[in-house]
């Protein structure tokens, strides 16, 4: 084996093909319906970033970052704070994911917008770009990220990698590379510098470091593109090389997922938006429990036990029996089901530190058992309730709300946005921001969206 | 499997034990000879950072970084440029490694100083620390880094990870955590945030992105400690958890290497310093070829062919037949041997873009064959030369200069320092810097070392 081992026979030049595609595609080459889904992604991401902006996770990251920030060009969405563009990308990536309420590419469980949109909007405040071009770059970045994820999923995820971080850094690199007009060779270098920073362990789930992953992926991917712009060179085959990303970090490499049907099959258009503020795998249980609550009324207070029959991933990812914090609660199907039955809620308020410690929630949670059924679809669940008087109730959810088959409508995205944003920036800013975000493709300066999120009028005036 | 799977039976609480040790150890607990080796490490690292400071790799990284730098507290060693401490750590980590001339923990091929010293000295310019305490923190960081490396080496490296990056980030986190006085719980968090950033692919060898690894490890490990200081929480068992660093990134986990004999067995004291500006594995060949040149004189111009019998890692790591750049030349035992035979040199000048393209070097290089002998020690080589007249010469190197058995003397470290530093910052600055570096333990303010490296007097005056 020499330093530069030959790539195995039959392996396509994935890094180069993807870089060429990213450089050459034009906004008008992207079908209208794909651009529309990209816009829905952008609006949903903006709401999530504002919604998470006052979380203590963001406060603490900001405290650590502040002494090191460069020129304060870029907004921490939903706050009066501004940072240099790299640090703003980090912070917005954290806040958009901290409530586990963002978007999901269901095939890979990647949350595509966090790493990509956080990088692009922070950059837009420093190096102006139109809203139309930002949306093009966002779709290009998400497409790269999801295709690279498809290439290695599920083996890569099963090994313990948080794929939103590991694949997200490529998405941010591609998006920023597109936005700043890198050459194909520079995009290859950017992919190399991204690959060598690809990281994020699932061990961090349930801690503040989980939401660090999309933030750092945004920052690192942006930095990869900026280094490549300065002709900082790297491997030009970092995805497929014998010691590249796919071989080192996964037992599975399906390169056709990356290069086949580029420009006709759109992974970015498969994005979905969470109706509930936690891992997508427990959404069917929450959906079913909320429906049961609506049907049962006060009878939910007389439950003796609950049985959930779920997809195996539910227990693998969210099998925490006794969560102690709101963040841990997002990884407990037991807490989530109990909160849905007793409060009718799966939003951010169902996953606060207080809610996971309320006595009635804990009592009901402890009566719930869950079994994994490999035959169960990821978007399905069966719920069986036994009441104290021996009577029973059941609920079958065929496809949960927010799944590909039952996507959120634009109106539901609006409602989710408003519910998150109003408590953080108030009603007037929320209304203006929502309108500006939907209007992205008409904006001569995409940075208007960031400025529209600033809560305080004086700060906002100063920024404009 | 639940979110927080139990750690496997028998696995010690490695992260906690190492964090407790790092927090509790005092400078005086470190044996004199270990402190002395730490000082030699620091001096050698300082010379390497200054020696690499004008490399185009550093120029390009600096161009990319500059628009994002925060308050310019910290020196890019050997240059008039200053950056915020995080970015200075990145740049100094790059420059100290870019010539492949730094230090080596031979058991793991980790280059320990780059990630750790680069973080500490940049921090010292922002948050003052005595030279004595900086040396203590340096040794603590190197010890953590090398022990974590031992735990997973060689399987981790064989999988394709550049261990200086992947283990180095833990060293930087431990060192900065020690320097700023984190609690044990905060150091555990810092290890968690370090683990989730652990990255760096061997695919990058031969490009500018190789030296990015120690730089980014320094920056990321420092940031991990600073986030932990702000109570940004993380897993507290990131090294040994089922989905932690060792399990996700290696097939081998020998936790005893991390926790056994802490405070009595010192991996940091096993550090060695390269006499030649390239990967350690080709040092025996260069040593032997330089000896042969001294013995043969002009007869080296009449060589028909050369055969090298080497350790297998030599061909795996440095088997590049036709390097085109200086950086690639460092990964060609053929080029290195030819340059040693024809120029008598293994220093930075043997690995310039010009040198790898000189006609006589290329001609001799192409006559060299190398064979891997598993019985050959890593510090040994056998060289057989056949001349055009049919006569022969041989050289057996039992242990190469710079290996553990033939360490560089202090005087040789001085000579190496001067040879690197004078072309970058001149004779006067070099002499002052060398003296200041050796005097580290007596400095009330460790940052004096950084200031002593600034080449231009006016800039230097402004910084003081």
TrEMBL record, chains A, B:
<dbReference type="InterPro" id="IPR042188">
    <property type="entry name" value="MmgE/PrpD_sf_2"/>
</dbReference>
<dbReference type="Pfam" id="PF03972">
    <property type="entry name" value="MmgE_PrpD_N"/>
</dbReference>
<feature type="domain" description="MmgE/PrpD C-terminal">
    <location>
        <begin position="276"/>
        <end position="439"/>
    </location>
</feature>
<dbReference type="InterPro" id="IPR036148">
    <property type="entry name" value="MmgE/PrpD_sf"/>
</dbReference>
<protein>
    <submittedName>
        <fullName>MmgE/PrpD family protein</fullName>
    </submittedName>
</protein>
<comment type="similarity">
    <text>Belongs to the PrpD family.</text>
</comment>
<feature type="domain" description="MmgE/PrpD N-terminal">
    <location>
        <begin position="17"/>
        <end position="256"/>
    </location>
</feature>
<dbReference type="InterPro" id="IPR045336">
    <property type="entry name" value="MmgE_PrpD_N"/>
</dbReference>
<dbReference type="InterPro" id="IPR005656">
    <property type="entry name" value="MmgE_PrpD"/>
</dbReference>
<dbReference type="InterPro" id="IPR042183">
    <property type="entry name" value="MmgE/PrpD_sf_1"/>
</dbReference>
<dbReference type="Pfam" id="PF19305">
    <property type="entry name" value="MmgE_PrpD_C"/>
</dbReference>
<dbReference type="InterPro" id="IPR045337">
    <property type="entry name" value="MmgE_PrpD_C"/>
</dbReference>
């Amino acid at each position: 084996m020499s330093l530069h081992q030959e790539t195995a026979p039959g392996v396509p030049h994935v890094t180069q093909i993807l870089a060429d595609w990213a450089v050459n595609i034009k906004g008008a080459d992207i079908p209208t319906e794909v651009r529309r889904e990209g816009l829905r992604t952008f609006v949903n991401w903006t709401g999530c970033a504002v919604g998470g902006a006052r979380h203590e996770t963001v406060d603490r990251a900001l405290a650590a970052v502040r002494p090191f920030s460069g020129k304060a060009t870029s907004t921490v969405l939903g706050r009066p704070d501004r940072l240099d563009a790299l640090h703003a990308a980090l912070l917005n990536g954290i806040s958009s994911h901290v409530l586990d309420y963002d978007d999901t590419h269901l095939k890979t469980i990647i949350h595509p917008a966090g790493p990509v949109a956080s990088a692009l909007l922070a950059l837009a405040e420093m190096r102006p770009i139109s809203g139309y071009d930002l949306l093009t770059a966002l779709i290009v970045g998400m497409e790269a990220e999801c295709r690279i994820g498809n290439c290695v999923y599920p083996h890569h995820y099963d090994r313990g990698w948080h794929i939103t971080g590991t694949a997200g850094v490529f998405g941010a690199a591609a998006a920023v590379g597109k936005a700043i007009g890198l050459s194909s060779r520079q995009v290859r270098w950017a992919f190399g510098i991204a690959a060598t920073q690809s990281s994020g362990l699932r061990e961090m789930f349930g801690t503040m470091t989980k939401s660090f992953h999309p933030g750092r992926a945004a920052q690192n991917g942006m930095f990869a593109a900026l280094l490549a712009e300065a002709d900082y060179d790297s491997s030009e085959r970092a995805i497929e090389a014998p010691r590249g990303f796919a071989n080192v970090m996964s037992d599975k490499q399906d390169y056709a997922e990356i290069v086949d049907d580029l420009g006709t099959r759109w992974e970015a258009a498969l994005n979905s938006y969470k109706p509930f503020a936690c891992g997508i795998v427990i959404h069917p249980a929450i959906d079913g429990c909320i429906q049961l609550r609506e049907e049962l009324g006060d009878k939910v207070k007389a439950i003796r036990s609950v049985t959930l029959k779920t997809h195996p991933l539910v227990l693998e990812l969210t099998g925490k029996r006794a969560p102690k914090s709101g963040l841990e609660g997002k990884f407990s199907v037991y807490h989530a089901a109990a909160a849905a039955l007793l409060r009718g809620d799966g939003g951010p308020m169902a996953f606060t530190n207080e809610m996971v410690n309320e006595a009635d929630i804990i009592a009901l949670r402890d009566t719930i058992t869950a079994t994994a059924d490999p035959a169960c679809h990821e978007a399905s669940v069966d719920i069986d309730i036994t009441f104290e008087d021996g009577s029973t109730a059941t609920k079958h959810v065929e496809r949960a709300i927010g799944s590909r088959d039952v996507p959120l409508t634009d109106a539901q995205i609006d409602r989710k946005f408003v519910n998150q944003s109003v408590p953080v920036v108030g009603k007037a800013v929320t209304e203006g921001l929502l309108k500006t975000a939907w209007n992205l493709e008409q904006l001569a300066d995409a940075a208007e969206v960031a400025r529209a999120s600033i809560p305080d009028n004086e700060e906002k005036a100063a920024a404009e």
